[in-house]
Here is the input.
Amino acid sequence: MKKNFVLAFLVILIAVASCSFTNKSFENDDKDKLLLDLITYVLERGHYEPKDINDKFSSNVFEDFIDIIDPTKRYFLESDIREFEQYKFQIDDQIKNTDISFFNLVYQRLMKRMDEAQEIYTEVLEEPFDFAKEESITIDYDEVPYAKNRRELKERWRKQLKYNALGVYDNKVKIRKTAISGGPDDGSVSVEVDVENLDPAQLELKNMSLAEVEAASRESTKTTLDDFFDFIDDLERKDWFVQYINTIVDEFDPHTFYFAPEEKDKFDISMSGKFEGIGARLQKKPEGAKVVEIISGGPVWRAKSLEVGDEILKVGQNGEEPIDIVGMRLDDAIKLIKGPKGTIVDLTVRKVDGTVDVVSITRDVVELEESYVKSASVIKEDKKYGLINLPKFYVDFDDYTERNAATDVAKEVERLKTEGVEGLVLDLRDNGGGSLKTVVEMAGLFIKDGPVVQVRSSGKKKEIHEDKDERIQWDGPLVILVNELSASASEILAAAMQDYKRAIVIGSKQTFGKGTVQNVIPLDNIVRSNEHGNLGAIKITTQKFYRINGGSTQLEGVKSDIVVPDKYSYIDLGERDQENPLGWDRISPADYEVWEGYMDYEGTIERSSARLALNSQVKLIEENARWLQEQQNENEVSLNYEQYSSRQEKNKEKSNYFKSLTDYDSKLTFESLKYEQELFTQDPVLREKRDRWHQDLARDVYVEEAINVLQDLQLNALKNQNTKLASVKG
Here is the structure.
């Protein structure tokens, strides 16, 4: 598929080489204009579903760019927006004429307003906050209008700063209360404590009055903002222009992205499998940076310190005063979070349950071994089953003969067969995808032969990728586990096995819903000569893939045969919740035959659903999911300390209540395979990792139900086989 795209893209290269790009770059030495011209040209001719660059497109770019650079509406005034609106329906014309007047106006005004903002927050933080006052702040910034004048803007800053300081104050008050061993919070200290056992922060707070604690909270908030604006001051005009370019690019779809030269280098490193930092993928949100993926083997994954859905609000360096990243560009926030191996980053995090906590993470390099496939045998009563966990569909694109997901899964299947397993679970939860070639080969392990996925490029006939090897490596019962974070290649495999009725899919109501393919195009490859240096690259959506039944996985994902709720059931995480996703559609189905194994498919699904309806653990998971949805929808926050603190305590109590989910015991036994057990004597760290994994599996109700389903499928297979034998004898 990659080869076909490259051939198709040659047409674009030839067209570009013969057009006026080279002349334009010499006539106009403005790199920004060259980039704008070049990127839009590539998008219009190379994107799977190019957008019409018209007034509607212009309006979307206008709204999104303003929202991205001022998400909390703390800089621009209503009059600024009115002035900007003269360009609202002209940006499309500016793009076509490589005119950047709109960007220049907004950028210059932003710099001015940011200078004014520093004066405003300094003024606000000179006055004490009254935490006894009854007032609140709306954190759904989409619903907040722009300030009409400086007075209104200052009031907005006052509430925002009070909100920030309130969190700091609450934390300090709690530390102070602990330090004085339950003493009164009226400013006096009446309880004697062992001073030698207090750390410096506790000792300092122990001797403070509440008024002094409030002043310290304001000072801490000011330091955070000073650091934030120092960071902003280091940004150059080109950094903001890249954001403008990506606002335009993002209108095509959420997976198309422009990489500035330095960002392209980072992308290349990440694609090589070498990650240094905390091991989490983030998404920009008005209130900070939202965790959307935990990278297997990374520091966060190992420590279980963050989870998908958490929002990072502040970033500190090893005990230093943290910097507020609210309103900061995502790239800049990531620069603060990343750092050399062995250093510590302190993240102030709003958890998915609404509680706020400080999480300290030691930066490290992702352990590649933990992103590879691993397996275990599962013992229930006198039966043994196999479980294979696949974090991603990995491959070395330069040398496919090197380690890849398909060959590794094949090895694990053989090892499990040797151990005598009677059913197999393939766990694709949290698997964000990867190589399409490995998907096709992996599907071939479970079917005789036939199509696995259909791929279509814009304006071309569909291609059918199929398994042509008639050998079946595993013909026994098969279950595939998925969740809302199973995406792309994971969805292809789950969909194919579902369409063949080869496996029963268990998990979330639907998977992520990413049904598109991207390619990275270095822009330097497109122009014959360039006086501006490295131009970076563009990751562009070039194809769409479809199930063998003809339906797209785009937006809809794969709907599980057996639905089990999880904590993300009601949280916006899927492709359908991204900006500007491509739509769902259908093409003609491929020619395939449904699997004719001895499986009572529908009956097994009905029995499983009946079991889950009575399962108390599943009911608790559903309760947790709905509560998390309530927390996510809470957009009004009290700035009264008693109400704020009370809400935090209630959230903490509820959060602790749901921690009982981890006390669950399925009574299943998990064991490493023999080859791995032999490695434990030389690698005790591997033993520890596997022990931890097995403990997690034993608490996993989804795995428990997968084994129940395998047991049902096996019994049904035997029953059908016995029925056939009896009829032959008769």
About this structure: Confidence is low (pLDDT under 50) at residues 1-29, 183-196, 267-274, 724-730. The chain has three domains: 54-251, 275-365, 372-515+552-715.
